[in-house]
TrEMBL record, chain A:
Superkingdom of origin organism: Bacteria
Organism: Nonomuraea phyllanthi
Name of the molecule in the record: Fungal lipase-like domain-containing protein
InterPro entries linked: AB_hydrolase_fold, ADC_dom_sf
Automatic annotation (TrEMBL), chain B:
Highest classification ranks of the organism: Bacteria, Bacillati, Actinomycetota, Actinomycetes, Streptosporangiales
Protein's name in the database: Uncharacterized protein
Organism superkingdom: Bacteria
């Protein structure tokens, strides 16, 4: 273990801090000179003494531009001075204050190198640091490229981590990009959170505001394996073990412990950022980590506050907050939230591997534990090299160990192992301060966190009035609601003779034809979550224009794309199968026709499909590219007794129209299944579809069929 | 005395004060380097950097003093 207390390093940090004071004094003088030059009041006196005014202005101009003195010293809040400062930065004209700050940063790097000699002993790292400090941009880029090529991004960043903030700030101070100067200045002077990316100058707050939402939390049950890993007695390692058990899965945990004095206290435990793309649901994503670190309140911290409110500790109950990574920043936001602290007595906040240097909780004992090779805590610009004692009242453990690889050194398990094995003093001290929370755990509750309150499942499409229906195997709710369905409809062209007589007496009109051939639809669907359980289905139907058409010669195609409840055209059912007994019994009662029971395998990908109906057919192959469209739903007709029934599947979701599929339907050879026979009669054995419509994750509503009135 | 003249005099006084502060900065820089050298922990490059900063501080102090003097003269001449 290495720390920050070597005497040489201490002297270097003291010198770096004094240089910051010097730089600030110089900057102040530059601001005064700029103010004198741009103030309009002295200009108004110019007509009274022009001969004396010009030498004064010449002297001021020299003071603010002399490369041997203050350098390009335009500074201050005025538009003119800001524009002049940016123009100066763009041509690489630094001010003396910036040069002194750069020296301060180099001393900070030197201080870190005392504890991390590899930073200067490693020629590639030393080359990069020297180039950044010497304002040799091209050389710095080459050095970084060589480092990345030699070590890979992970190792390069891990090795640079102890001086990451300093190197970025050095480069930002000395480069020609004026947009990142403010961030570099904040890092170098320790005056606040680095408000912009030190490389591009893009505002962190601009990124953080993308993370919107009021924050929400819902109770969830942990799995038995996860519950078994939760600590049964409160301790620092126990709480960190809980965070490890939760993982970065968008969840948080609250526990109640009975302290040694018999008082029940509560501990909020917040894991870090979930790896992967930012999403619009979880506050534990990359954007959540950014906003938690940059802003005083974020969806993550608000979601945690809601979890605590739901957990219901009595007013004023004592609360300890423990967080890792982004969770540490989020719990610090709670600890500095006056409203939250008015409702609860926040006694302790423990942040592990978190960028929390600029959090300002009041009246809370704070511990911050950071590994010097972990980049995440340096995201606020202050890392191992900081020369500022920003929190004399905090307990700060900033250590280094032999594991230099990020993100391994950032993991909660690595921090926990370090505290268990390598940092016994730090662990014991934090545990001692957590004594009121070191007792038997009497309650545990996990929460799933959201950016904003989640919609009730299926809302609004599936939130409809329902009614009970006495089915053959018990009562079911109608309409049948499905919240996750994959479906494929393949349209085949068959000889008209194959369908002769099928539509006779239905009043549904002659079958829809394409180039003299009749269109037949083979529809398969896997309904994963429905109000009658999951089931698969297969339907074969002749595409018909539907009843009551006023203009019998008008094409039926446009009607096929209308919403299902407005559509006349549909498929006249000539055979169907399902794979669950309940639907085998229910289907004919609800929608008419005959339904067979058979195992169905339906695998639907973005570009391919694989369907097997036991003893009936296989339909598989590539779907090819698809044109996205809103799924139009289904309309089906079936003959029942002497009547024709119309049923409708209303859908919500996207579908893809595949205009050039290369699927092939093969009827099960030698199968005597009635549906196999029907497919052979239609000439579909070995047929390829003209086009296909595929959809995944559809929501559907399906009610009983209604008789079509006689025409 | 008009507001314009008062503003010029105020700027001159601030700049004169800044010139003294810059001179003090030069002294602080010398002290910082000396302290690090005495402790044996001064990086090799530090001397060259501090020497450059010292020269710049001296030049900046002179520039500020000159600007202050010329602003004072401007205020004198512009006074009715």
């Amino acid at each position: 273990m290495t720390g920050r207390n070597a005497p040489d390093a201490g002297r270097l940090r003291t010198a770096a801090r004094e240089l910051v004071d010097v730089a600030l004094t110089i900057q102040e003088a530059a601001a005064h000179a700029t103010a004198a030059l741009t103030d309009v009041a002295p200009l108004r006196a110019l007509p009274q003494a022009p001969s004396a005014a010009w030498p004064a202005y010449r002297a001021l101009l020299r003071t603010t531009t002399n490369g041997q003195g203050l350098g390009c010293a335009f500074t201050g809040g005025g538009r003119l001075s800001t524009a002049a400062a940016k123009a100066g930065a763009m041509v690489g004209a630094e001010s003396l204050a910036v040069r002194v700050l750069a020296t301060s940063l180099r001393l900070r790097v030197a201080a870190v190198a005392v504890a991390h000699p590899e930073l200067t002993a490693d020629p590639m790292l030393a080359r990069l640091i020297d180039a950044a400090a010497a304002d040799r941009d091209l050389e710095a880029v080459r050095a970084l490229r060589a480092l990345l090529k030699d070590r890979g991004a992970v190792r390069a960043l891990s090795q640079l981590a102890p001086v990451f903030g300093e190197v970025l700030a050095l480069r930002a101070l000395l480069d020609e990009n004026p947009l990142n100067d403010a961030a570099a200045w904040l890092i170098a002077t320790g005056k606040g959170f680095a408000t912009a990316d030190p490389i591009t100058g893009m505002s962190n707050r601009a990124i953080a505001v993308l993370d919107t939402g009021e924050g929400a939390a819902r109770r969830i049950e942990l799995t038995a394996a996860e519950s078994a890993r939760l600590c049964t007695r409160g301790s620092l390692l126990g709480f960190l073990g809980n965070i490890s058990a939760l993982g970065t899965t968008g969840r948080a945990l609250i526990q109640s412990v009975e302290g040694p004095d018999g008082v029940i206290r509560h501990v909020l435990q917040a894991p870090g950022m979930r790896v992967g793309r930012p999403d619009g649901e979880s506050p534990q994503d990359l954007l959540g980590a950014f906003s938690s670190a940059v802003l005083a309140s974020s969806p993550y911290s608000r979601a945690l506050a809601e979890a605590v409110a739901d957990y219901g500790p009595p007013p004023g109950a004592e609360l300890a907050l423990v967080g890792h990574s982004a969770g540490g920043a989020a719990i610090m936001n709670l600890a500095q939230d006056p409203g939250f602290c008015a409702r609860h007595t926040v006694t302790h906040a423990v942040a592990i591997g978190s960028p929390v240097d600029f959090k300002r909780p009041a009246g809370t004992w704070v511990a911050s534990v950071t590994n010097q090779h972990d980049i995440i805590p340096t995201l606020d610009g202050q890392g191992a090299g900081t020369c500022f004692d920003l929190h004399p009242d905090w307990y700060v453990v900033d250590y280094g160990d032999s594991t230099h690889l990020f993100p391994l050194c950032h993991s909660i398990d690595h921090y926990r192992a370090n505290l268990a094995d390598d940092l016994p003093e730090a662990r014991d001290l934090i545990d001692e301060r957590l004594t009121p929370y070191r007792g038997r755990v009497v309650r545990s509750q996990a929460y799933l966190l959201f950016d904003r309150a989640p919609e009730p499942e299926g809302s609004p499409f599936l939130t409809v009035p329902t009614r009970a229906f006495d089915g053959p195997e018990g009562t079911v709710d109608l309409p049948i609601r499905c919240r996750d369905r994959d479906a494929l409809t393949a349209y085949f062209a068959v000889h008209p003779a194959a369908t002769a007589g099928l539509l006779e007496g239905t009043g549904l009109g002659p079958a829809v034809q394409v180039a003299g051939r009749v269109l037949v639809a083979v529809h398969v669907a896997r309904n994963r979550h429905t109000t009658v359980g999951g089931y698969g289905e297969l339907q074969v139907g002749v595409v018909v224009p539907g009843p009551f058409r006023r203009h019998r010669r008008s094409p039926a195609w446009p009607d096929l794309l209308r919403a299902a409840d407005l559509r006349r055209s549909g498929s006249f059912l000539v055979g169907s199968a399902v794979d669950t007994p309940i639907m085998r019994a229910l289907g004919p009662r609800l929608w008419g026709g005959e339904t067979y029971l058979t195992p169905l395998e339906i695998r639907l990908g973005a570009r391919s499909a694989h369907v097997t109906a036991d003893l009936i057919l296989t339909l598989r192959g590539r779907l090819g590219p698809g044109l996205p469209l809103s799924d139009p739903g289904l309309v089906g007709y079936a003959r029942e007794g002497g009547a024709v029934l119309r049923s409708c599947v209303r859908t919500r979701g996207r579908a893809r129209l595949h205009a050039a599929p290369s699927l092939r339907l093969v009827v099960e050879p030698r199968s005597a299944h009635p549906l196999a026979d029907r497919l052979r009669e239609l000439g579909l054995d070995g047929a390829r579809p003209l086009l296909c419509l595929s959809a995944t994750t559809l929501q559907t509503l399906r009610d009983t069929a209604v008789p079509v009135p006689p025409g | 005395m008009s507001a314009e003249i008062a503003a010029i005099i105020a700027h001159a006084e601030v700049l004169r004060s800044d010139a003294r502060a810059l001179a003090a900065c030069a002294e602080r820089l010398r002290a910082i380097e000396a302290e690090l050298k005495a402790g044996g922990g001064a990086p090799d490059w530090l001397h060259a950097s501090v020497t450059a900063h010292l020269a710049a501080c001296a030049a900046a102090a002179a520039d500020l003093e000159t600007a202050a003097q010329r602003l004072s003269r401007y205020a004198d001449k512009a006074s009715p």
